[in-house]
Amino acid sequence: MPLYKLPRGTLDILPAEQVYWEYVKHKAIALCQLYGYQRLDTPAFEDFNLFARSMGEGTDIVDKEMYTLEDKSGKKMSLRPEGTAPICRAYLEHGLYNLPQPVRLYYFATVFRYERPQAGRYRQHYQFGFEAIGDADPALDAEIISMTWHFCLSLGLKGLCLQLNSIGCKVCRPHYLENLKRHYSACLTQLCPDCKARLIRNPLRLLDCKKKSCQEAIETAPKSINYLCQECKAHFESIQRYLELLGIPFKVSHRLVRGLDYYTRTVFEIQSPGEGIQNALGGGGRYDELIEELGGKSTAAVGFAAGMERIILNLKRQNVSIPALPRPSIFIAYLGDEAKAEAIKLAFKLRQAGIAAITAMGGRSLKAQLRQANTFGTSYSVIIGEDEVKSQTVALRNMTTKEQKTIPSTKLEELFRRD
RNA sequence: GUGGGCGUAGCCCAGUGGUUUAAGGCGCCAGGUUGUGGCCCUGGAGAUCGAGGGUUCGAAUCCCUCCGCUCACCCCA
Which nt is closest to the CA of A257, judged by C1'? Predict the structure, then answer.
């Protein structure tokens, strides 16, 4: 019967699912208010080059996964594959560098990547992220990381692991990469085919390989933190001191790298305890060179982004109890046309007074109407029949105690306004 | 892009010794005497058995092709 299906890798978020989404959004917004972060929304598509430049040509996201199209004027536009670059673009475009620095921002965004869908991975997914732009202080890294940790705790997730690493800056990273490549070139024969390709394309990702055959090479590989320059080293140590000060548990992992080119120094990731799935709930890091790359002055920045679907997946797995969404507590049933008109009028008046109500529809029996009220779970039903219309009253039934009394219809408003 | 698993009503699914009105449960709708819900009882609607082709007197069932879903790899949130 249906002529169309939802596009591959996308999701209809049905009413029954919305509790989770509202829950996560509310926690996220509360968190940002607590830390003084302000919302900034950007469009779903941008100039192709914004992403090509920021994430780096040669990354899979830019080369293979972007939804790019030419608009009617011939401009190359892309659906956003991530949230940070557009935020930086907006920061520059609207002169947010004139505000007191750092500028603290957050966003919810749909992001698009053309990939084969699987558990916790979609072609369109929702990200929640926050960014602090305009300060290189390691205390700001610590703030972002502590916010991330705080967020996960407030959601009620357990057993999460915070991984931390530093991949250096443009001064010290080239030196490290040389050593990494030398190490891998020496044991080339035992590497998996993917890793052979990585060695040329994206050496940092070598550390991320899951194949058994490559684990030894990773274990014995040089660690980025041993190649940091003075400044990067001091920065990284400082972050760790702040995190210890805050009592936030973290694990320095020399294997942790991030997929996008713009990261400098700090990288971190929050991992769920689950096995065999996309276990990164979110990740972030510092990107001190990105703003300049996009045409601004040299501006330090740090941020984090989380995948909403993955968070929700974990909330379900861990059976975190989610508060129900509010529903109307009054159901209005009627018998006959005159009563129906009264019912519609009454519902409108109640709603104007801020009292949520839902009315029956159609011409079903009272029995059927109350059956509906029952499945809606409203705690009260209002019944209007011919008698009530004549006497300007309504029958108010408490659905849990079954108590029912007749009251003047004008009384209803004040009765419910109280609770 | 590569590889595995799976496609029967909105949902969960029975049925693959070829012959059935394609069964059941949940949900939905309606009834169980006058205007009263949850439990129970009865009834109803709802499926071109993922699509197309082939074999056969006869296919949900066997064969081929395609499509879709799903999981993993790659990549990433």
Answer: B76
